[in-house]
Every structure is written in C-alpha cells, then in structure tokens.
Write a structure and sequence with these properties.
Length: about 375
C-alpha cells in the first residue's frame, strides 16, 4: 500500500459545487484580507492535502512548537512554519471566530475562520528556520519583508491561481489513485528544482532498483535568479524519461510549492509532503534545499535521525561521479580509484557551459537534455519571480 497521509488523514479543504457557490457569495460580503503570492500558493497546498494534517494557517501554539521543537503541538513531526502574515491596520476589528475572505490580485481565493491573530519575532524565526539572520539568504530576505502579525485559522479554498502547468499537476488524491492503479506498493519520490544531469539519473535509478516506481516531482513557483525556468525543467525531464527510462516506471508531476531554501528543515518538510502524495521513500540530496554555504555537507541527512516516527523512509544515496577507470557513474562506495580518475558533476560548471551554448559531455548530461536547454531562448530565471 502507498504511505498513510501524515497524521493519518488526507486533508481536502476545497469547496465544490453548490457549497462553493454559497461560500463565494458569503465571501463577497466579508472583510477582504489581501495576501502575498507565496501565501496564495500555501493556501492551495493546504487545501489539496499536500500539507496534511494542516487545515489552515498555523495558530500560535503550533507555530511556536514548530519553531522550537520541529513538531506540531500534538508532537507530530513538522519542520517549516506555514503562516499567514497580515498588516495590523488591515485586521483591525477582526476578532477570533470571525470569517474573512483571502484575496490575491483582486481575486477571492478562500474563506478563513480566524482562530487567532498574534505577533512574531522575525529574527527568531530566521534563526530557527534558516539557521542564519544573514539578509543574503533568500529565505531570510523574504521573512524580513513579511508583515507584522500572523493570523491562524482553518480555510476553505474557493478558487485557484492561474496554473500554466495544469496538465502536469497532480494532487495527493490523484497520485494515490494512480499509484494504486499501477500496482505500486513502494514509491520513491525525487524532489528537484534543477534540470537532470547524470548524477540525478544515477540516484533515481538506484532508488528504482528496490522500489516499484519513481515520482519525479519538480517544484514550480518562486525561484531565485540563476535557477532554471520551470518549463525548461519539465521539458528536460520529459526527454530524459522518454529516452532513458523503462515505460511506466516513472510519474512526472509538478508541485507548485514555495521554495524556502531552509536546508535540513526543508529536507524533512519535503519528505512529509511526498508522504502525503503516497510516496514510501524519499531521496534526500546531500545539500538538500540548501543555498550558498549556510548548511554543512551532510546536515540534510543527519536531521532525519531526529525523526524516527516520520512515516516515510529517507534514502541517502551518495553523490555520483564519473570514473575514467570504471568507465561509468559510480560513488565512493563502489569505486576504488583515486581523485585523478574522478570527474565530479558541478551544477555551476554545467550552467556556465549551457549559458555559452556548449553541450556538456555525455558523462555529465544526456545530449537530449542539453539540447532542450541550449535551444530554449532564455532558460534561466533572470530576476526574482
């Protein structure tokens, strides 16, 4: 069987049919709170069950528990605060128990039952979540720009943001049905925000040797400058799967979820989310969700020791490199040869080559993948999205 949802029940807070019509009519009469795009994306992930067991934005007790102990107040593992920031002026007069409408870009997206409005310490938040208060860290920079209060409460989703990747989007209800239909009992999930090189392919295929199927699950949404554009990542994976994977062992689906670059904490968060999608195993990158030099080399692996009750098996597959003596992709565990024979795949070096229109050697990147990137008019994010 696919994994049980985190907390035992898959959340679904999407209003449909006549209930949606009634709630939307009600929402139009309510106080409207304007939210950021990141909060709008979190709304969808809550409503469709990706963030199960959360049914809304965190109240203070859960927020502080996650900040300090990396667990919800009921002791369930949870590492990333999912919060809604609001302006004091905007919520003036709003009381506990009130209903409010949440809107982005003039579009009402959800109804929210306000349970609590509370203050927060942005510096403490950054220290706990990102392990730094350096404004050069993209997650810290975003935190410092957030509003002064947090508002917690259950939500009902009434509308979604425009989705340019609708045909690639599968939510937990759908992936679970798909895995069951294929008869997969064990599923390895691979989180990515990059195009695939031979190192990625190596770890995915290593996971496939002892699981029934692979969920390749690129994040779409906020990216930092220099990241590959979402459509480039999707096309690159389509080419890789088409030419280099057996038929019907891979599901490629995107997830619109905010990338926080919170390193170890976010690695656990990504595992929990994929558990909700039905995965039984999760491939953890060596510097998973890292940025710059803010986290130690294997910190994203070590943190999983603190969560024996996570309910999904983390897979720590050593970094692969090409060995000129072995004549293929290997790891430190499978190759006896010295550094002079080892060619490591550098993401930075690959970017430089691809930016210059140079096709990387085939022991670094499949030619079909390289051509997708080189032939795209502008494959990289130039400014913060």
């Amino acid at each position: 069987m696919v994994s049980r949802p985190h907390g035992g029940r898959l959340v679904y807070r999407v209003a449909e049919g006549k209930r949606r019509e009634a709630l939307m009519a009600e929402a139009r009469e309510l106080k409207v709170i304007k939210i950021r795009k990141e909060a709008a994306i979190d709304l969808e992930d809550i409503a469709f069950g990706a963030f199960s067991p959360l049914e809304g934005f965190m109240v203070q007790e859960d927020y502080l528990s996650v900040l300090e102990d990396m667990r919800l107040s009921n002791d369930l593992p949870w590492t990333i605060p999912i919060v809604l920031d609001v302006d004091p002026e905007e919520v003036a007069g709003v009381k506990e128990g009130d209903d409010v409408a949440l809107a982005y870009n003039g579009r009402i997206l959800a109804l929210m039952k306000v349970e609590e409005i509370y203050g927060w310490d942005k510096k403490l938040h950054a220290e706990k979540v990102y392990k730094t208060t350096d404004p050069g860290h993209p997650g810290v920079a975003k935190t410092m720009k957030m509003k002064e209060l947090l508002m917690g409460g259950r939500i009902d989703l009434l509308d979604t943001l425009p989705n340019p990747f609708e045909r690639y989007t599968l939510w937990p209800r759908e992936t679970r049905v798909l895995f069951e239909a294929r008869g997969w009992r064990t599923i390895a999930a691979f989180q990515t925000r990059n195009v695939p090189h031979l190192g990625h392919e190596f770890v995915q295929k290593a996971a496939l040797t002892f699981t029934d199927g692979l969920l390749v699950h690129p994040l779409v949404g906020w990216k930092k400058p220099g990241d590959y554009k979402d459509e480039v990542i999707i096309r690159a994976y389509e080419e890789l799967i088409k030419h280099y994977y057996p038929k019907d062992v891979v599901v490629l689906a995107v997830l619109r979820m905010n990338m926080r670059y919170a390193g170890p904490r976010e690695a656990v968060h990504h595992a929990i989310v994929r558990k909700n999608f039905g995965a039984t195993h999760f491939i953890v990158g060596r510097d998973h969700a890292g940025v710059g030099n803010y986290y130690g080399p294997y910190e994203a692996w070590d943190i999983f020791k603190e969560f024996p009750d996570l309910g999904i098996t983390p897979l720590f597959i050593r970094e692969a490199f090409y060995c000129t003596r072995c004549g293929g992709m290997v790891t430190e565990k499978t190759c006896p040869h010295g550094e002079e024979h080892r060619v490591k795949i550098s993401g930075t070096k690959l970017r430089e080559m691809l930016r210059s229109g140079i096709e990387p050697p085939p022991y670094m990147m499949r030619p079909e993948v390289a051509r997708v990137i080189i032939n795209h008019p502008n494959p990289f994010v130039e400014s913060e999205e």
